Amino acid sequence: MSTARLEPIPPRQWSQEMTDGLREAYRPEDPRHPVSPLDPDSPKGLNAMGVLAHHPELTNAYNRLIRHALYFTTLSIRQRELLILRVAHLRGSRYEWAQHVYQAGVAGITPEEVAAVRAPSTLEWPALERALLSAADELVADARIADETYAVLAAELDAQQLMDVVFTVGAYDVFAMALRTFDVALDDDLQPYA
């Protein structure tokens, strides 16, 4: 395993701006997304937050987008987590994968379905979910959802949902880039989900 390019800043050393931003971004009492780095009973992902703490202003701006994906998306939690898992797999982001394997379980996605996200052809997905996984592939590869995939999505999703597909993939794609570029080490509490 590689050495981190940016060492995580321990939570006790985070700036007030970083701490306040996290409190604003994550709402652990929200039943739509019960996982938060501020929740003592869930995997926290503190190494990732510790690396992001090097740039609180950027982190707080990014967390506004993530806050939408977590709490205000027009997609179902299941749809959101399938997209994120696929991005994590495509980008080889072990950290993002582990965080969202945990969250997928909270969302009711079975271990068999989680495993099939890595190889979608191994499971007979409903048409919409198959299209969501394809959309993630196409956005990561080409920055555009192909016409055939878009037609399946547009038959079932409205304009806001279609936008949430694109922005969810984009938000977690950039996070995977940061995690991999800075060689963020997997937290011990995330190891079981890797």
Walk me through the structure.
There is one protein chain. This protein has 194 residues and is an all-alpha fold. The protein has one domain: AhpD-like. It is 61% helix and 0% strand. It has 9 helices and no strands. α3 packs across α9. The longest helix is centred in the C-terminal third of the chain and has 23 residues. The radius of gyration is 16 Å and the shape is globular. The two termini are 14 Å apart.
Short description:
With 194 residues, the protein is mainly alpha-helical. It contains nine helices and no strands. It has a single domain, classed as AhpD-like, CATH 1.20.1290.10.
What key attributes describe this structure?
194 residues; mainly alpha; AhpD-like; 9 helices
Sequence-ordered SSE layout with sheet pairings:
Elements: H1 16-25, H2 46-52, H3 56-72, H4 77-91, H5 94-106, H6 111-118, H7 127-142, H8 147-156, H9 159-181
| Overall mean pLDDT | 89
- Taken in chain order, the helices and strands follow as HHHHHHHHH
Summarize the biggest pleated sheet. none
CATH class assignment:
Mainly Alpha
As a whole number of angstroms, the C-alpha radius of gyration is: 16 Å
Spans of at least 5 consecutive residues whose pLDDT stays below 50 are none
- Helix content bin: 55-70%
**The CATH topology:** AhpD-like
N-to-C CA distance: 14 Å
Instruction: Give the overall shape, derived from the CA principal axes.
Output: globular
Number of domains: 1
- In CATH, the homologous superfamily goes by the name AhpD-like
| % residues in beta strands | under 5%
Structural class: mainly alpha
Instruction: Tell me which CATH architecture applies here.
Output: Up-down Bundle
Q: Treating each run of at least 4 consecutive H or I residues as one helix, how many helices?
A: 9
Total strands: 0
